Amino acid sequence: MAIETLSRPGLAILCILIGTIGITLNDVLIKSLSGGYPLHQMVFLRAALALPITLALVQIEGGVRLFRTTRPALHLLRCALVIFSNLTYFAALAALPIAEAMALFYIAPLLITLLSVPMLGERIGPWRIGAVLIGLAGVIVMQRPWAAGADLPAARIVLLLPVLAAMGYAVNSILTRQLGASAPASVLSAWIQGTFLIVGAGFWAVAGDGRFADGVTNPSLTFLLRAWVWPAPGDWALFALMGANSALIGYCLAQAYRLGRAATMAPFEYLAVPLAVVAGYVLFGDVLDPVAVLGITLILGAGLVTVWREAKIRS
């Protein structure tokens, strides 16, 4: 028996599309600033700018009383998964072309589709199971298991980071669906922004002076460990945009998975993959090799099959 949750699929799809566009913009901003700032500083500033917007939404939706919960442990687990997903994904983004990082991360909707069965009681048929397997094949292709280290776009551990991020994100999305029956999207987002603030401040206290970055050459580790610096005047606008965009993403994704079935929402996130391809080429000059194109094609194809099957079942 499926868990009782809210259901407004039209609004949920609109929210997931807005959130997905916001994710692409966020990735562009993170990658653009990753050469001069540590990741934990960017996370802290983004959350500091996003939290007031999120709290304003909480007030609109009912006020601070909405933070009362009987499941604080589940909220904390969800926050921990979001932190894990962000750190692993953005560490990869500093070293990989944006389209490759995004495409590898997009094992997440496949995992959401699978996890919706045991965790939410939803049902998926053989068509969608087959689509998931095709998508997983695309991820394996992009991992290039046959290639030597010199022929990879980044260190093999860096190629695995978006996959680890996807695992955390998939479980987080399922938890959002469960918690969303009793908590509005603004509260779910506020929990995340508050956690980002705490974690960012903790990183600053331990590694903010860059003491652990000495001698580090891996670009992902450098991004994680370099010292905090005061933002350049021209970068404050980018940080402000990142904060507002983060608030929008958090609210829209939480709302989408509150109001729509997880297996229905997941495929719409694939819009981020072609957006990342275009953004990577236009803004960073990234040109995909044939292996990456094949992997992305398999992943997108799997997503489209899932969307088609979902539409046919509901027709």
List keywords for this structure.
single chain; 315 residues; 13 helices; mainly alpha
Description of the molecule:
The protein is mainly α and 315 residues long. It has one domain. 73% of the residues lie in helices and 0% in strands. The chain contains 13 helices and no strands. Helix 3 packs across helix 9 (219-225) and helix 5 runs parallel beside helix 7. The longest helix has 25 residues, at 9-33. It is globular, with a radius of gyration of 19 Å. 48% of the residues are buried. The model has no long low-confidence stretch (mean pLDDT 86).
Beta strand %: under 5%
Number of helices: 13
Return the average pLDDT rounded to an integer.
86
Number of domains: 1
Q: State the end-to-end CA separation.
A: 22 Å
Outline the biggest β-sheet: none
Q: State the helical fraction.
A: over 70%
Spatial shape: globular
Task: Count all strands and give the number.
Answer: 0
Q: What is the CA-based Rg, rounded?
A: 19 Å
Give the low-confidence spans: none
Q: List SSEs in N-to-C order.
A: HHHHHHHHHHHHH
- Helix and strand composition category: mainly alpha
